Amino acid sequence: MGEKKKKNGGVLLGAAFVMATSAIGPGFLTQTAKFTSDFQGSFGFVILVSIILAVIVQLNVWRVLCVSGMRGQDVANRLLPGLGYVVAFLVVAGGLVFNIGNVGGGALGFNTLLGIPEMAGYFLAGGIAIVVFLLKNAMKAMDTLTKILGALMIIVIFVVILIVQPPLGMAVKGTFLPEGSPKDIMAAILTLLGGTVGGYITFAGAHRLIDANITKQENLGEITKSSVMGIVIATIVRIFLFLAVLGVVVTAAGKALDTSNPAADAFRIGAGEIGYRFFGLVLLCAAVTSIVGCAYTSVSFLKTFHKSIEKNEKWFTVGFIAISTIVMAAVGQPAQLLVLAGALNGLILPITLGVCLVASQKKSIMGEDYRHPKVLFVLGIIVALLAIYLGITSLGSLGQLF
Hints:
0% strand; 402 residues; disordered C terminus; mainly alpha; Amino acid/polyamine transporter I
């Protein structure tokens, strides 16, 4: 029993890191730096509200998937035949486009850290991710990689915080007494929500637990712990990055961050050339873990549709990463692709959350004994309505965020 608990503990932490590091990609870093520059201390309020909304989404989705033992597409198909194929298409399409951007982020990380040319960086970043899935125990390797690189990101950003010494008083005040346009703040909150639990991201950890057979109502406590842990890890990175950039923005008052790469510019201003190299390391870690998490989750949406996909899951995942790498090398700048992917993710969140909320009330899916908490259900409806608003606005204005 003790051995099983220890094994489960490793998978639970691994699932949390897979989810968190899937969220913490190149776009996450750029987004956090840009919004910190725009809102300064008040970005703390944006982070706080987005955390609460993300936890509501995560708890609803993970509970439904893991207690039912069915992946997202299977739950959707059980509710309405054919809906699962639509959800899978949206998730995989959005995941592929984002993964192309993640490969580009990995190349930028190699270039910033070691000066490696971007073209070589594309294949290095994609190659590292492919090696993970070619290993004999790929799932364990994925868990280990995301834990190590996730922890490394937290440590490196914390070191930069110590160097720049951000104004903590301003951050605390802005978190609870924000200033600025309510409309702009709401747009930022919804953007962070989509970037933290949109598209494939919220499913990454839940599908990992299903693959490890940590399902059914008797494991609900562990499932809940892992889901919240994933949000907490992503939030720690977000808060640390916010504080690091805030220290730079306040110290260098009047000097705007480079819009093409605000996070790298903040690290360079705050900690000199070594800070710039630090950011290269953070960007590389973020990109590689996002490539791994995105590829794993995207293919997990396909494998229940045909036995050959499930049987050859490893090779489909490797192919997914290889295609992302080749397209990135051929196309070059991923900005337009990222805009398209963001719009897709904005549309996916209300659909997937809505599916899980409806499914939570179906005994045929959840079992006779399961009772979904009413408070969680009502809060889920509120977030779903906000997510619909996010989906509508993301189509028209997402390009402005990049």
